[in-house]
Amino acid sequence: MQKIIILFLLLITFSCSKEDSQEKNNANDLGGFSAFIDAKNLRIFAKEGVSEVFLKNVGKAYEAMFEDASNIDESMRFHYFSTSKSEFVYQRVGLFGENDTNFDPGTPPSPFDDNVTDYIWELKEEGVEQIGEVIEHLLHTVTNVVLFLSYPNEWDYNNSSSLLNKAMQESIEKGVYDISSYDEIKDDKEIYNKILTQEYAYWLILAEWDYFIIAGKRMEGITGNEEFTIGTPTEIATQLPLGHKLYKDYIEKILSIPDSETIKSLF
Predict the structure, then answer these.
(1) Range of 119's domain?
(2) Tens digits of per-residue pLDDT, 103-149?
(3) Count of the separate structural domains present in the chain
(4) 3-state DSSP assignment of residue 69
(5) For residue 49, what are the CA distances in angstroms to 23, 35, 46, 127, 240?
(6) Confidence of residue 11 (pLDDT cuts 50, 70, 90)
(7) Which of 92, 145, 234, 251 is the most core-located residue (most Cβ within 10 A)?
């Protein structure tokens, strides 16, 4: 179900307040959205029906990824934040149940334009599924949008020689990352590359954070799942050295591992 929603929104996508501030306007003023907040230079737009608490908690979850940590490179983090702000990167949040064929993804007001990926859905129930929904799609925005814009050579999903693509190919060749479920979109090369790399980066970070259980993504009998079979930092370091290096050289220097109890308390 989630893959269908992601593909639908990506196909549509391709054809400044202080942090934690919130504004509410009519849908016409915000291009089909009813509210927004800013968190760490990321604007988060919400559709009508999304609860104020959920919207704020999505912002808090994003902020939790940028706490102080010993491995942070302040210049890289500054570059990340500056790029997010100058390129008007944004995240969309919707209410689950509206994602049918008549769903209007919205067009936020200028200068917010194409620097966005998919939606975060507010689900009917809290718990691991909601945590997984939020963490996954925030990380898609981190890797597929902000890092892509910040480090266009290293994080270019369309360049087979980029560090991102080389690390992903390593995981495919070693049988860790199964991409067979995406065969239906092979004909659209750009969308295919975009989705394969954003899903790979998400699984890589989730494993390096040891978050598979917290996000409800672990399959019984293995540390990972049927799509990405390993789910611990040790396994990544020993089995996927290129992926581990990509994480150490970029993700670990910009993001911190969000406190799991904080994330659980939000969702």
Answers:
(1) 2-259
(2) 888 899 999 999 999 999 999 999 999 999 999 999 999 999 999 99
(3) 1
(4) coil
(5) 15, 10, 8, 20, 42
(6) very low
(7) 92
